[in-house]
């Protein structure tokens, strides 16, 4: 058989090429995830909110791989077997580099078996991304994204109920009593995500999705999603998420702006000023917290002002500096933290003498990737993100590129102070919406390579 060989269906996971076999199944699995992931809770579990969401993402990723594998087997022939490096596009190649290095870093860590779940979570996110990209290329991305309005409204309802005291948390009494005061405070404005920071980041992603739906003629559903996400953000009083949402809206307006009559510069300045004013007003509910931060900064207590994050960040830098190639191992920050925190205290290299002796996450995804997978892990991750941005082509923006780039910018801001890539409730949704955004953009522009 001469000419280009047919592409097996399984290759669509990494290259997004058109094919009929898995698309319907991908759509069902991804749609279920968009609806179920933000609301799934196990009231009696030790980790009632985050762990069930992690299990869901892993299960869906395995299901997607099985569907693609079955479709491939059903159409298998020697001539169709064409799985090679050359068959992948640049995004697929960079994702393989990320995956390979995660394995290398895990094998080089003190506990390779213990790193398996972190590697599995990263692989699951990549599977969701490429499955969504495949689906978005040949199907309607708005058709699947419009279902996000359901969990957004349910989370808003839970949040309002928690803030008014009518429905505090979805937990058993035993689990609630076991939570410490800090966790109880976070749960008081956490909706069904379990943490107000998690919920704030989810509402940011929902805001971007709502804007996408509006731009794709789903104005009623998109408007409800935008309104619910905006109200939810205000009620969470999550400062980082509110600022990220403002940047998202500003970028969306600037990238979609088309000069008409009048002074284009003045119009752009007006858009920027209106967005900044909106961010300022949105932060009003968080002013008491901002006042506390300001008082700590004035007294020189920078680490206290950031909730211990400066000391933790310096500890993460020390981890990466002492293990510059492979890091301490994927998912091993929490296990290695105490040793390095004690080194920080003894060396006196932190802004304050009291470095927290326990922290489960860095609250900075870039530093966490560096600490856990080393310089190469960080560079391969940034390469993947860079290629993703280049594929979206901001010039001549489509609705897909607006969604992909604006929410990515918002998540970068969140990643500097929070942990969107560590929580399945956010990275699962981000993977799907980013993949759909790229697939929709490629379908709109006809650019598939």
Q: What distance lies between the first and last C-alpha atoms, to the nearest angstrom?
A: 24 Å
Based on Cα principal axes, name the global outline: globular
- Structure classification: mainly alpha
As a percent range, the share of strand residues is: under 5%
Report mean pLDDT, rounded to a whole number: 79
**Helix content bin:** 55-70%
Q: What Rg, in angstroms, do the CA atoms define?
A: 22 Å
Main beta sheet strand tally, sense and closure: none
Q: What is the number of helical segments per DSSP (H or I, 4+ residues)?
A: 20
How would you spell out the order of helices and strands?
HHHHHHHHHHHHHHHHHHHH
The poorly predicted ranges are 1-19, 76-84
Topology, number of strands: 0
Question: Could you walk me through the main structural features you see in this protein, from its secondary elements to its overall organization?
Answer:
With 449 residues, this protein is mostly helical. Helices cover 69% and strands 0% of the residues. The protein contains 20 helices and no strands. Helix 2 (23-36) packs across helix 5 and helix 10 packs parallel to helix 20 (424-445). It is globular, with a radius of gyration of 22 Å. The protein starts with 11 loop residues before the first helix and ends with a helix. Residues 1-19 and 76-84 have low confidence and may be disordered.
């Amino acid at each position: 058989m001469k000419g280009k060989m047919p592409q097996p269906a399984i290759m669509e996971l990494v290259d997004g090429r058109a094919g009929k076999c898995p698309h319907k199944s991908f759509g069902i699995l991804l749609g279920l995830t968009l609806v179920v992931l933000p609301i799934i809770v196990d009231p009696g579990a030790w980790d009632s909110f985050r762990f069930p969401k992690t299990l869901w993402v892993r299960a869906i990723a395995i299901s997607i791989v099985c569907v693609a594998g079955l479709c491939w087997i059903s159409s298998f022939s020697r001539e169709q077997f064409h799985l090679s490096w050359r068959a992948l596009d640049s995004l697929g190649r960079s994702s393989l580099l990320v995956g390979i290095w995660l394995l290398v870093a895990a094998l080089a860590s003190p506990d390779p078996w213990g790193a398996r779940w972190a590697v599995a979570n990263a692989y699951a996110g990549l599977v969701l991304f490429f499955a969504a990209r495949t689906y978005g290329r040949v199907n309607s991305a708005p058709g699947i994204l419009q279902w996000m309005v359901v969990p957004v409204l349910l989370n808003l309802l839970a949040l309002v109920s928690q803030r008014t005291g009518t429905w505090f948390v979805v937990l058993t009494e035993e689990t609630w009593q076991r939570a410490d005061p800090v966790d109880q405070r976070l749960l008081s404005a956490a909706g069904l995500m379990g943490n107000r920071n998690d919920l704030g980041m989810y509402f940011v992603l929902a805001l971007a999705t709502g804007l996408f739906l509006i731009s794709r003629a789903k104005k009623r559903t998109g408007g409800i999603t935008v309104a619910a996400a905006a109200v939810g953000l205000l009620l969470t009083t999550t400062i980082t998420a509110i600022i990220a949402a403002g940047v998202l809206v500003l970028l969306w307006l600037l990238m979609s702006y088309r000069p008409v009559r009048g002074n284009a510069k003045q119009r752009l300045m007006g858009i920027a000023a209106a967005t900044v004013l909106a961010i300022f007003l949105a932060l009003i509910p968080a002013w008491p917290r901002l006042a506390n931060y300001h008082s700590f900064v004035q007294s020189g207590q920078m680490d206290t002002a950031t909730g211990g994050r400066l000391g933790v960040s310096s500890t993460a830098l020390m981890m990466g500096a002492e293990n510059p190639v492979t890091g301490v191992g994927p998912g091993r920050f929490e296990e290695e933290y105490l040793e390095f925190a004690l080194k920080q205290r003894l060396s006196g290299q932190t802004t304050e003498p009291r470095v927290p002796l326990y922290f489960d996450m860095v609250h900075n995804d870039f530093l966490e990737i560096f600490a856990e997978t080393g310089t190469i892990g960080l560079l391969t991750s940034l390469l993947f993100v860079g290629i993703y941005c280049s594929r979206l082509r901001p010039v001549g923006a489509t609705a897909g590129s607006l969604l992909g780039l604006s929410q990515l910018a918002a998540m970068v801001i969140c990643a500097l102070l929070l942990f969107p890539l560590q929580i399945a409730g956010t990275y699962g949704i981000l993977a799907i919406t980013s993949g759909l955004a790229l697939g929709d953009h490629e379908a709109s522009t006809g650019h598939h390579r």
